[in-house]
What does this fold into?
Amino acid sequence: MAEPDLYDEKYKKWRFGDLPIIPDTFKLLPNPRTKDQLHVIKELAARSGMLVNACDAGREGQHIFSLIREHLHLQQPVKRLWISDLTAETIRKGFDQLKDNTEYDNLTRAARARSEADWLIGMNGSRAFTTKHNELLSVGRVQTPVLALIYDRQKQIEAFDSLKFYDVTGLFSQESTAYKGIWQGERITDPDKAEAIAAKIKDKPGTLLSYEVKETKEYPFKLYDLTLLQREANGKFGFSAKKTLDTAQALYEKHKVISYPRTNSNYVNEQNIPEMHRILDNMRGSSDYGDYVQSANKKLVHTNNKNICNPAKVEDHHAIMPTMKKPQGLSPDERKLYDLIVRRFLSQFYPAAEYKVHTVMTEVERETFKTTVKQLLSLGWKTIYAADAPKSSRQNGKEEGSASQDREDEEEETDAPFELNPQLPVFCTGAEVKAKETQPPKHFTEGTLLKAMESAGKQIEDDELRDAMKDSGLGTPATRAATIERLKQVGYVDMQGKKIMITQKDERLSSSFAEPEWSCSLHLR
It folds into this structure.
């Protein structure tokens, strides 16, 4: 899309008084780097009676095709090749089932609207804030709200006042069973009070106020979409969002061993279920996964399993899966990412992990203690991750820096038998007092920032705005990595290990957005 000065010479000079710049019609220019390719397309199209749009199957693919067609004034009828992996089998099948390109007109319109909004906000916002601060400041429809997330988080951390408190843990026994319990009550900020409770209960008998046992199941995590894959690769391997995207793209385009990676869905369609079965069969005999394939159960992957098959939640593309092609010549990083995808895929063919959850309320000297013991009965799908510790194969579901981290996790996991008799007394064998401090929110990592971008809008108070944002978030799976990279390149954020930190440049820009008079004047103009 052309720069403002190609609409009017006066825009070569950046002046606040010339804003806003809103073209009646947006002008297009060929990208100098790919101008030769555009010429080749023009020559080929001139010899053709029909065109096939074989760009990426998605909103941006539709947009790229429509821009080329518009710029070259191509009038031929258009068919659409819509495929989710690049194996020969899928490509042949796709060409046998070409669709009419008009079926995807709404995707094209959505992409054009997004592209023009990017231009309008970027060109006007960047010029407005640059002229205000006399320093080049980049503003964008997505990058600026993302920057605000990082800025707000860092300000919360800087303003955080830590509070010291004390946990009292009782050590109990009943016959051959020993267990721990956390004191229940208002948070203790007086160390003397904590020590007094510990001394009061030590070597004293107690009773079980309540004892509940409930069987629970944990089902496999959903298949990967791109954002979830980026988050996990960042947490596990330290990969940046861009590195994960580039690596996944190589697995898709170069090696053809995974399906289309730029997807925002964790589910598959009904027609993908037989495909999943074929992919599983194709893995038999694999030196890396053969044993897992041997124990896999196809009957668990079916169209009625809504944790896997949910067509209503598949927009452009289904979840990321391995393909029928066996991997060869993968780099170490490609192998790591491929392994994540394969294990997540294989876990769908395994039953749920089964547990007994024991919840115990113990009373000693009129003080109450809570115990939660999660007893493993069957590993189920976690067999796929048996090399890891039991907990590391699942995320604990807590946001980093959440308030729940201020207190020690009250849940203990064990694969040993655990049983208490509510009719029998217990004995307090000891007590421990631990000094702790409330913790501020954690600095964003690329993984946690991706999650915040994906769920942005959920905290908006306005019901109508929140509803409009609920399925959108900031950016798309395909563009979130580029947004984070852009913030680094323009100097708004620095990386300190995995932590994302704001710079002085971000301070100047973000603080400007908080100035009511400035925001109002820009809006009114």
Q: What stands out?
A: The chain is about 35% helix and 15% strand. The first strand starts at residue 51 and ends at 53. Residues 40 and 402 are 55 Å apart (CA to CA). Residues 389-408, 517-525 have pLDDT under 50 and may be disordered.
